[in-house]
Amino acid sequence: xxxxxxxxxxxxxARDRSRGAAELAxxxxxxxxxxxPDELPAxxxxxxxxxxxxxxxxxxxxxxxxxxxxxxxxxxxxSRDALARxxxxxxxxxxxxxxxxxSTVVHALRFAPPARLLCTESLPGGEGxxxxxxxxxxxxxxxxxxxxxxxxxxxxxGADAVTPAxxxxxxxxxxxxxxxxxxxxAVWVLCGSEKFVxxxxxPDLGELFEATPRAWFTGVLDGEEAADFx
Length: 230
Fold this sequence. Notes:
Blueprint: H1 4-15, H2 21-33, H3 40-50, H4 55-65, H5 69-91, E1 95-98, H6 103-111, E2 116-120, H7 127-135, E3 138-140, H8 145-148, E4 154-157, E5 161-162, E6 166-170, H9 173-183, E7 186-190, E8 209-213, E9 219-221
Parallel strand pairs: 1-2, 1-4, 2-3, 4-7, 7-9
Antiparallel strand pairs: 5-6, 6-8
């Protein structure tokens, strides 16, 4: 990439392992807004390669190429608040367990705080400690998730991508989903529509992310569709 500023921003985006998918999408969109029309195709491809497992980064790049970046950003910001309102009956005043770090989940739990919050440590990386520190939650070992679910009313997780068949999220999400099903605990995915990608979206997920069948979750709750808590 010929623009040194854009190249440096792309490198920063690629190194970022602490932010959630929605936050990374915002950074990608801000980066793409700096690109000239001539630079945009290369910049879009570079941000996709920088965070290949993050569907909203991919969608931000596609929106930029179509000249619809402002609309994408508006939807990104609005869906978070709408989702928090829809998720409130799930989390408010209840015992909740979550995994890893998601800015969408953090926002929802701040909007409707649980009575008690358990956060898996989420190794490698330990992103669950960040979630716990932001929300005054309790950190538990990843291996303790099945035992901890015995006292949990609902589990919620974020997502880095959602296809018609799978939810892509931090390693350990599948274990949580299976353990919750075995315990009879509802487990919901909270994510904005910017996380949705078609069935043929199939990037290299690397060692930190995994694809969990959507059927293993109670449901996927986004910021646009009506909620169904049956």
